[in-house]
Amino acid sequence: MGYFRNVIWWLRYDTPITLSEVRYGLLFGAYHVIVAMAARSALWQRTKHGWSGWTVPLLVMACLALFIVARWIGDQHLLPLWGDAPNYPHQTSFRSFALDNLSYGLVPIGFGALVYAVEAQFAALRRQLELAHQQRLSELTMLRAHIAPHFLFNTLNNLYALAQRPGADLSNPIHDLSELMRYAVKNDRPLVPVSEEHEQVMRYVELQRLRYARPLNLVLDIPTNVQAALVPPMVLLPLVENAFKHGDPCHASIPLLLRLDLHGDRLRIHCSNAAATGTADGSSTGDRQLARRLHLLYDGRATARFARADGRFTADLSIPQEPLT
Questions:
Q1: CA nearest 292: which of 302, 280, 277?
Q2: Beta bridge partners of 192
Q3: Residue 219 sits in which domain range?
Q4: Residue 239 lies in a domain
Q5: Most-buried pick from 31, 50, 183, 233 (CB within 10 A)?
Q6: Residue 147: pLDDT above 50?
Q7: Cα separation, 282 vs 246, whole angstroms
Q8: What is the CATH number of the domain that holds 297?
């Protein structure tokens, strides 16, 4: 403590500090660093091996003993080797020295315990974040696993209906279905260009076109400047699929509309269609799953809204153009 008092005195009054005081200050600081690191390491070992609570007093006693022995060696033996006087008189017994340094030894032990506590909190936070990340990945995997068979079953039903028609040629539809399923199941990239989603939407539309005797009233407004924008796979396809499944894509005055545009650093997706007679609302399982996927992927920064009004189903998505975390 006298060394730190001398430092403060020097800062206030420009009183020079001797080389002997500098050596002793460095030595005294070394005691504290060694014991603080020892206390921190001992507490981590206790956590790692699950030692009982009774080990804490033993660890404190061991660290106190380390501090006392280190200071006894430094103050009473190293200082004289450097030409300085020992910090305690030569006749001081080790017992007296140890009793006098019990309170000093608690300071680095407390600091080491504080460092351990801070590190343990950060480690716990890191584990929680990792667990949340793994849970999010698992949920996304389950959602995508649900989308693929759901999409497959609907399309197979359509092909079955087509097969009932005399002279139906299913070679192209089956090829389109194969390409669609390859895209849905084997695409493990987190983001894809809009152009790829656009291509798969067109495949799906061609499959659906074979089902209807009336012409489709379809408007795809996907300008060139959004083709390179990035979206998660299977974002546009579920919107169009739900429009066919729950709406009337052949309505004379209300088209099935899919429009994309860029507003700053966000891609806005709008899909609307005429509500089919007898449908209760525009919210489907597919819509909810899509909204959940976007929420998980973008941590709430992407939005998805679905509504029914004036005989229309509408879906509005806003996706930030930024890397996924």
A1: 302
A2: 231
A3: 169-320
A4: yes
A5: 31
A6: yes
A7: 7
A8: 3.30.565.10
Expressed in percent and rounded to 5, the helix, strand and coil fractions of the chain are: 60, 15, 25
Say if 156 falls within a structural domain: no
Do 116 and 200 have their domain in common? no
**The pLDDT value given to residue 148:** 54
Residue 143 has pLDDT above 70, yes or no: no
Q: How far is CA 294 from the centre of its chain?
A: 14
Domain boundary at 100, 126, 152, which? 126
- Of residues 96, 184, 105, 140, the one with CA closest to residue 290: 140
pLDDT for 3: 47
Tell me the angle at which helices 2-13 and 19-49 cross, rounded to the nearest 10 degrees: 130
CA separation for the pair 72, 98 (Å, rounded)? 8
pLDDT above 80 for 22: no
> Do 205 and 282 reside in the same domain of the chain?
yes
Last residue of a domain, one of 92, 126, 160: 126
Amino acid (1-letter code) at residue 250: C
What pLDDT was estimated at residue 16? 64
Residue 322: both structure tokens together: 């930024």
302 close to 294: Cβ distance less than 8 angstroms: yes
**Half-sphere exposure for 244 (CA within 13 Å, toward CB):** 21
**DSSP string over 134-173:** HHHHHHHHHHHHHHHHHHHHHHHHHHHHHHTSTT---HHH
Is 289 within 8 Å of 262 (Cβ atoms)? no
Sign of the alpha-carbon torsion through 33, 36, 42, 43: negative
Burial class (CB in 10 A: 0-12, 13-18, 19+), 78: middle
- If asked whether residues 194 and 307 sit together in one domain, one would say yes
Q: Are strands 256-263 and 303-309 parallel, antiparallel or unpaired?
A: unpaired
- pLDDT for 95 equals 87
Which tokens in the block code for residue 283? 């919210």
